[in-house]
């Protein structure tokens, strides 16, 4: 059994990683169709040693595809994902367009693969910080019953796509030459800087990214009343996100049990031996499938609380890897 | 009335800033004695247009000094600060050596200048992240009564002194040249990276830096029961720290009142107009005396809670400026 696969946004950071993963994970691909903007049409990209010509993303391009990965932003997903579903495709959408739609499963396979049974052709891939945070939170939730969490993120520029990485590199190179590169992607310089601004600001003073982390965490974990407060911060790191979390639980916590819960969970490694300087860092997580959890400790300001630090590759578990894992977990 | 002043650790990042501040703030200096390790003895540094020769830090060097700033690490302070006090100096110590000593006032002048009346010759200057956090927390405490806070820091390499800044620069320059510079100051690369490791790890899984933030906050604010949980993270930023804070209060919070409390407080600016991309960033705080507070919002996971982001120059309010402000506030 092999599938015809489409990738919308094939030339982007996530699109490129999807191509790599389809190959490296030996996903059963019968045909791969690479779709992008008209600007990229006609260029080629390599897959299993062959060059594939990029086509413009148009409704007809979806005909005959089994699975289409969308990773070209929310407005393209809103316009074209329903079109692909109408033409018989299963869409795995990396944008925020449908994530909170009650009819669309939002999935981190290690957490809620079971909801895939109810999909109606469209499946949403979560926000990158949310997916990475849940890799640490969910095993602890299963052990102690999650009630509330506070999170502060350290988000890599890859979250803004290739252009975010280009912007950081450009500013770094300018600085080394004693020059200044004017910010184009971000409102402020990102080299040697950071800012509590990821996605747009909303009425209540939180950003849309902060709301995504809260709403998506509740939906994926199936915990409608989970209390969440997050601060999302962009940092001068290339492609792995880190998150500092204080989590409060229903039941008394036990550090040994917490460590075992992380150790036993799929997709996450316990990297927690401070005496040997072992704890999660974004650089060590770059290019790595598993997220890393460390600095696990009993929280000093919560009744049944644990603090920890989690890091994961933003383009992998935060996007492309999770999307492929959804495809792998689809009911046959 | 003018003072004879000594600076121990004159060649360090904080020492250099102390010299600059004594001059720029027109501190009444009768004589300035620059003290450092034997290695630096004989070199000169400029003060008010004159070159001053650096002397080795020995007990006799304190004779005749009115005020001595110590900024050469905890072990030198432990060895020599009591010696300076014995010789009649008032010591303002930037190290952690005496901060939790019940007989030593620990002071952020905007918060607790009144305790200076009780000093016995030795006054401690707080940890940099603590001083910066309190610039945001204290005005809100006065308005609503602080009960508990969670903090995640984004700490600049200047917190490790000149060598931290040199390390980041060296790694950045190597990266641009396609090379790798081996970490010397930190356990991991800091360029394009970050790690939840500032100071040493303690038994309970928190670091000493995280304990400092908790213990020093309680002491400076005079709130012995304040519940605090922090995660301290080193980031590739040169010299300003940022901190994401979720704070819980005794009394119901009001956003307008909170904003006014920050606006009316000394030493801190409300930088909070997200619609115009105005919020605190470490780069904008570099070289600036006042700390910046922004992203002020009603916390979504606390009963009477406020979230905010605060940034401040680590060498200024986090060290040298606060030390000079203590000297300025000394009872005459």
In short:
With 332 residues, the first copy, chain A, is of the alpha/beta class. Helices cover 31% and strands 24% of the residues of chain A. Chain A is built from 9 helices and 14 strands.
Q: Write down the domain tally of chain A.
A: 2
Share of residues in strands of chain A? 15-25%
Largest interface: A-B, 59 and 59 residues
First CA to last CA of chain A: what distance?
10 Å
* Second rung of CATH, namely the architecture of the largest domain in chain A: 2-Layer Sandwich
Estimated structural class of chain A: alpha/beta
Unreliable parts of chain A: none
Elements of chain A, N to C (H/E): EHEEEEEHEHEHEHHEEHEHEEH
User: What is the 3D form of chain A?
Assistant: globular
What value does the average pLDDT of chain A take?
Answer: 97
Number of helices of chain A: 9
Explained architecture:
The structure is a homodimer of 332-residue chains. By secondary structure, chain A is an alpha/beta fold. The first copy, chain A, has two domains: 3-125 and 320-329, Rossmann fold (3-Layer(aba) Sandwich); 130-314, Dihydrodipicolinate Reductase, domain 2, CATH 3.30.360.10. Chain A contains nine helices and 14 strands. The first copy, chain A, has helices at residues 13-24, 74-86, 109-112, 128-144, 162-176, 208-221, 255-264, 282-285, 316-329, and strands at 3-8, 29-36, 44-47, 50-53, 55-56, 67-70, 90-93, 122-124, 146-154, 227-231, 240-249, 268-270, 291-298, 305-313. A six-stranded parallel β-sheet of chain A has the order 5-2-1-6-7-8, sandwiched between helices. Chain A is globular and about 55 Å long. The N and C termini of chain A lie close together (10 Å). The relative contact order of chain A is 0.15. Chains A and B meet through strand 9, helix 5, strand 10, strand 11 and helix 8 of A and strand 9, helix 5, strand 10, strand 11 and helix 8 of B.
């Amino acid at each position: 059994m092999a599938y015809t696969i489409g990738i919308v946004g094939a030339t982007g950071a996530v699109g490129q990683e999807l191509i790599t993963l389809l190959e490296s994970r030996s996903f059963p691909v019968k045909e791969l169709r690479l779709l992008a903007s008209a600007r990229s049409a006609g260029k080629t990209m390599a897959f299993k040693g062959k060059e594939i010509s990029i086509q413009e993303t148009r409704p007809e391009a979806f005909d005959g595809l089994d699975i289409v990965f969308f990773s070209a932003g929310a407005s393209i997903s809103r316009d074209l994902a329903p079109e692909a579903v109408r033409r018989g495709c299963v869409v795995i959408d990396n944008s925020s367009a449908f994530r909170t739609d009650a009819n669309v499963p939002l999935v981190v396979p290690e957490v809620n693969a079971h909801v895939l049974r109810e999909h109606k052709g469209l499946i949403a891939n979560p926000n990158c910080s949310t997916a990475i945070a849940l890799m640490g939170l969910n095993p602890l939730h299963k052990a102690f019953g999650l009630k509330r969490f506070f999170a502060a993120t350290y988000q890599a520029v890859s979250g803004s796509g290739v252009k975010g990485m280009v912007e950081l590199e450009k500013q770094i190179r300018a600085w080394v030459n004693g020059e200044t590169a004017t910010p184009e992607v971000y409102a402020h310089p990102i080299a040697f800087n950071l800012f509590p601004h990821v996605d747009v600001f909303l009425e209540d003073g939180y950003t849309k990214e902060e709301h995504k982390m809260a709403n998506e965490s509740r939906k994926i974990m199936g915990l409608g009343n989970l209390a969440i407060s997050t601060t999302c911060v962009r940092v001068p790191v290339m492609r792995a996100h880190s998150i500092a979390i204080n989590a409060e639980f229903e039941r008394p916590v036990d550090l040994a049990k917490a460590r075992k819960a992380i150790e036993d969970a799929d997709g996450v490694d316990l990297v927690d031996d401070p005496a040997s300087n072992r704890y999660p860092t974004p650089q060590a997580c770059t290019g790595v499938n598993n997220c890393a959890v460390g600095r696990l400790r009993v929280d000093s300001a919560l009744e049944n609380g644990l603090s920890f630090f989690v890091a994961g590759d933003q383009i992998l578990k935060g996007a492309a890897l999770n999307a492929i894992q959804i495809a792998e977990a689809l009911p046959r």
